[in-house]
């Protein structure tokens, strides 16, 4: 039902669109930009809804305080066949498979958002919910890491799962579990899981130091395992190919893990790992720079970050990220919003970094761009998501008046198990629910769907999975940005200052 790529935080850079596509049409552009100033968005409400979404994606035995009440316990025997407890964690999207790599990336991004904007999340009254969302994932990772050199990386099978349309509570498909180990390495999934646990260890350091220490211990072991036994996880777990294929290899995840471990421990050996492997792992391009001093090596990393920011702002001479006529960053037809939400988060972080270090501007090929302009563009992407777009559709489910009512999601599209406990078979879901023209009986609140096409057009149909399927890693980066925007709005109301001029 879907094809997915391994997730990362860097957008693909594609050649600019032809000139006539830039100019479609100018009057529409002015209408969009002028009307957007009159729109008001409740970022606090968007933050609350985005965190609620993760409760809809929970697998396992649901807690007493479960707020997504249309969900019930599911997959309570995961890992039983293999003699390990793998109950819990998250379903990645509209299906019922637990894929370890995107789950880990999701937890890394959620944790990063809390690290950067925890104060704003707390002021919005959502800090407990944010920590609960992270801990639901990291608790599962602790279970899945059963030995220093063993990580269970998938539960369920995409092929059999996609053959059926069933609520997770009714699943009859395979729940076989797949692992990586010394003989079947998976440096990418091990590295990303290490990054997630290291980032989460920072989050829990103040509120739960014992748990923080446990997560850091697992993160360090996973990093050693991933680095010592190198290999792509999709070569060890063939079943993941076509869903989360390791397109870019495992080296970026090892660098990513080392950086998070450095941030969590402040131990120089992790930073040295990143610098020493910069060329060998593809971080740098020039063969002569493998002996360069650390300062210059860090500058090379910085130049890549600068290039990415400039590309998003359309400030490079050649490689810029395309945009729709309505102004949305556009990378590909299938689930484009995953790239938009990640870009918005990174632009926000970068803008904050420039402000914190008193840097007035970033030098791009086509001129300078300041932190306010970078943040303003990030905000424009968020506002587009919430409804400031040519079709006036909110791509965050449950937010606003007009949003996707037919999300491509098994559980949301079938009557809630709590209302109708009658068993729904594998093909029965297709026959009785998938093809219905009615709206989904359950609202997948807070889900960020795949989004519009390159012309800002969106067709809200259950079968249109390229546009109407939502994924956990779409929503995760939004949490931090929503918190930042809500905090600025609160400050603006109290200080009567323009939103963009706030820091």
From TrEMBL:
Domain (Glycoside hydrolase family): residue spans on this chain: 43-481
Gene Ontology terms: biological process: cellulose catabolic process
Active site per database record: 408
UniProt cross-references to SUPFAM superfamilies, sorted A to Z: Six-hairpin glycosidases
EC number(s) from the headed UniProt entry: 3.2.1.4
Catalytic activity: Endohydrolysis of (1->4)-beta-D-glucosidic linkages in cellulose, lichenin and cereal beta-D-glucans
MF-aspect GO terms: cellulase activity
Hydrolase as UniProt keyword: yes
Entry protein name: Endoglucanase
Lineage: Eukaryota, Viridiplantae, Streptophyta, Embryophyta, Tracheophyta
